[in-house]
Each structure stands twice: as structure tokens, then as C-alpha cells.
Design a protein that fits this description.
Helices cover 24% and strands 37% of the residues. It is an alpha+beta fold. The protein folds into three domains: 7-202, Nucleotide cyclase, GGDEF domain (Alpha-Beta Plaits); 214-278 and 402-425, Tumour Suppressor Smad4 (Sandwich), CATH 2.60.200.20; 280-400, Tumour Suppressor Smad4 (Sandwich). The strands form four sheets. The chain has a ten-stranded antiparallel sheet, with no helix packed on it. A hairpin with a 2-residue loop joins strand 23 (377-382) and strand 24 (385-390). Helix 1 packs parallel to helix 8 (310-317).
């Protein structure tokens, strides 16, 4: 595609061509039918790889996904594909999908009971029911996007379902509780999500009203050791010349860069800069990318960019990234490598369902970057979304903060050139 041409017009043209082809639409309509989509994802796999090494990590992922596969097939479902550390499966029956998910969590819980805490991992499961384009070995449509976003709302050990899926169930067969209303990416209104309680003992009791969450920030040294600790009472501000913590020699830090505060029992990070000096969070698990996100891998800085509307064509027409690329004459999404001044130096198209990056392994390699791991990170296409996932890298993969962001215990936060770890206090 020539520079200066609006990529969105190519997507519009693609969709219009499909609408003008009655035979294509007729064939497409034959593939539309109700389907239950299940997404699973292993939470804690990055930490497991770091702690136990690649061989043990790969074995753990294999065993988890084997449990998922066996549970799906036993209940009449179909495994469509592996996506990173997770899997995509489809069912024709909602109850079968939920029973398979309960079976997965039960088996994995029994395995965890035999392991020390450091070796335990959890699986998040999200389920949605809707109309999809169902081909022999794949499924397309908004039903996939919705299932993906339902799964992203789950925590390790949870089975989270949409309201549409709940309405397909005989609730007398399951214990279901409402989690509340959630704002999901790409949806204009909030959606009610529910949890299937498969193990009542696993439901954590509510904290006493008098108990207040407390956190502190630990400075991290270049050798991995920890330095000074700073309590967040009730907030903590960081900057080069202003704030509670000041780092006068850090030229990459804004005069007043960050604020951390506790809200509803969770720690929140807020960017106080003018937008040029960003705050970065280390990726834990997977992270859904948005156009404009800045990513740091080793010494490489990338900006994620997506062609507006391109991925909606994937779900509306049931076509692949390769077909979109042929129609657009460019990739539906790409990573743009930039220098420290923000100027683009090279473009890396995201043409396949999985793109890996590393120093010596991957689709794109950076052999001169000694800060990168051999295989550092991967980007996965899931429905309309692109997910960033760290590949158990030595120095981590970081993504720029968007507005106010909740951060979990153990998270790493990069402000300027200073790295901090969040620590929850008991």
C-alpha cells in the first residue's frame, strides 16, 4: 500500500466487495451458527519458567494443556488451537462446556495440592455463547472476541461466563454467582459476568471491614537485588525534581512523573507527566495491545500500530491475517521500532497468529541486544485482539501505562530509568 493512503478505505472496500458477492455471502451464511467458545490461559507461567527453567516450564504447560484437551474431548468439545499458554475450544452444548471446565479446574487443583507453593500454577477460563462463523478447524466472529474478553476478567482457578452463556444453562445444576458489571474492550456498554463456583472451599472470604490494604515500593538494583523500601501512606509520588521520591540525576524521568495510591483495596499507578516520559509496567501473563502502546524488550523500543477496522474484517468475513494482508497490501498490525527520540527506524509486520521476538530465536531477532533473552516475547492474535506475552525473559517485557492502572503484588514498575517492585504488606 502506498504511503498516504488511508488503510481504512481498503478495509471498507474489502467488506463492500464481499457484500456485492451474493455467492460469497450465501456460503458465509451457511457457516453461521450458535456456538460455545471456551478460552483457557495459564496464569503464573512466566514466573514458573523463571524459577524452574525452560524444560520444566515447557513440561508444565504441556501437562496443563493435556488436562484441558482431555476434559474438552471427554465432553464432546473440539480443541481449535493453542494460543500461547492457553487454548481455544468450541462446544455445541453450554452445560458440556461448563462441566468440562469444572473437570479441568478440579484435576489441576488436585495436582497443585501435591506441589509446594512455588510450583503451583492456575488456569483462567472464560466462556461465551453466541453466533459464530464455524469452519472445519476454526471459528470466527464476535463470539470469539467476547469469550476472549470474558477470560481476561478471570483470575487463576476461576471459571467466568457471560450472561448469554448463563442463560443457556439449567442453573439448578451449577452454583453460579454474579461478579458484577464489567467494561470490556470494544463494547460500548458494560456487561454482567458470572462465576461458576466449582469448589466452594476455594472462594476467599471477604476481608473484614476494618482491614486496610497496605503496600510499599521497593527499589530494584541492576543486579536484581533490592534497595530502599518506601511505604505508600496513603499515596506516594515520584519525580525528578518534585514528589515524595526524587531522582535528580534521572534525565528520562519527568519533574513529577508518577503517583501510586490505594483505591478499593487495590494499588493504582497514575501517570502525572505531560505524556512524553512514560511509565512502564512489566507484563505478567498476557496483555491486550492497543494502537499507540509502547513496548520495551531489552534495549528495543517498539510502538504497536493496527490498521483501523482490519481485524473487524477477520471476524465479519471469517478470513485469516494472510488474506487481510493480501487485500490491504500490508499487515493488519505491526510493531514499529523507534529510537529514544520516538522516531521510527524499522517496521515488523504481524502477519501470523503468533509472532515471536528474541535475541537469537523468533520471527524477528536482535542478535546485538545483550539485554534480550534468546526468546524474549511473543504476540498472539486472538479474535480481533493482539496479545503481548513475555516468554519468561530474563529482564522482562514492559508496556506503557494507560491512564490509571491497577497493579498487583509483585509487579515491576519502571519510572524513568528506575525500576521498582510492588509489595503487599500482610
Amino acid at each position: 500500500m502506498a504511503d498516504g493512503v488511508d488503510a481504512g478505505t481498503f478495509v471498507t472496500k474489502l467488506l463492500e466487495m464481499a457484500r456485492l458477492d451474493p455467492e460469497y455471502l450465501k456460503d458465509l451464511d451457511k457457516l453461521r451458527r450458535p456456538v460455545v467458545v471456551v478460552f483457557t490461559d495459564i496464569q503464573g507461567s512466566t514466573a514458573y519458567f523463571e524459577e524452574h527453567g525452560d524444560a520444566a516450564g515447557l513440561l508444565m504447560v504441556h501437562n496443563c494443556n493435556r488436562t484441558v484437551r482431555e476434559a474438552v474431548e471427554k465432553r464432546g468439545g473440539q480443541i481449535i488451537k493453542s494460543i500461547g499458554d492457553g487454548m481455544l475450544a468450541t462446544f455445541t452444548d453450554a452445560s458440556a462446556a461448563v462441566n468440562a471446565s469444572i473437570n479441568m479446574q478440579t484435576i489441576l487443583s488436585e495436582v497443585n495440592d501435591l506441589r509446594p507453593d512455588a510450583q503451583r500454577v492456575g488456569v483462567r477460563i472464560g466462556i461465551h455463547y453466541g453466533i459464530g462463523i464455524v469452519k472445519a478447524n476454526d471459528v470466527f466472529g464476535d463470539v470469539v472476541n467476547m469469550a476472549s474478553r470474558v477470560e481476561s476478567a478471570a483470575t487463576a482457578g476461576q471459571i467466568v461466563i457471560s450472561d448469554a452463556l448463563r442463560k443457556q444453562l439449567d442453573e439448578s445444576q451449577f452454583t453460579i454467582r454474579e461478579l458484577g458489571r464489567f467494561k470490556l474492550k470494544g463494547k460500548t456498554s458494560e456487561h454482567s459476568l458470572f462465576e461458576v463456583v466449582w469448589n466452594p472451599k476455594a472462594v476467599a472470604p471477604a476481608k473484614p471491614a476494618a482491614q486496610v490494604a497496605r503496600f510499599q515500593l521497593q527499589e530494584m538494583n541492576h543486579d536484581g537485588s533490592f534497595g530502599a523500601e518506601h511505604p505508600i501512606l496513603p499515596q506516594l509520588t515520584i519525580g525528578r525534581t518534585q514528589g515524595d521520591l526524587r531522582f535528580a540525576t534521572d534525565a528520562s524521568m519527568a519533574p513529577l512523573n508518577a503517583r501510586l495510591f490505594v483505591q478499593d483495596g487495590r494499588l493504582v499507578v497514575e501517570d502525572l507527566s505531560d505524556g512524553f516520559e512514560k511509565i512502564f509496567i512489566r507484563v505478567m501473563g498476557s496483555c491486550t495491545l492497543q494502537t499507540g502502546d509502547v513496548i520495551i524488550m531489552g534495549q528495543q523500543i517498539f510502538r504497536f500500530r493496527e490498521v483501523p477496522g482490519a481485524m473487524s474484517a477477520v471476524t465479519q468475513l471469517g478470513i485469516s491475517l494472510k488474506e487481510i494482508r493480501n487485500a490491504l497490501e500490508k499487515a493488519a498490525a505491526e510493531l514499529v521500532r523507534t529510537n529514544e527520540g520516538g522516531q521510527a527506524t524499522e517496521v515488523y509486520p504481524l502477519n501470523t497468529a503468533k509472532t515471536e521476538l528474541g535475541r537469537t530465536r523468533g520471527d524477528y531477532t536482535f542478535p546485538n541486544d545483550t539485554m534480550m533473552s534468546r526468546l524474549h516475547a511473543r504476540i498472539l492474535q486472538r479474535g480481533e485482539d493482539f496479545l503481548l506475552e513475555d516468554a519468561a525473559s530474563r529482564n522482562g517485557t514492559f508496556i506503557s501505562l494507560r491512564g490509571k492502572t491497577n497493579v498487583a503484588d509483585g509487579s515491576a514498575v519502571l519510572v524513568g530509568s528506575h525500576l521498582f517492585r510492588v509489595k503487599a504488606l500482610v
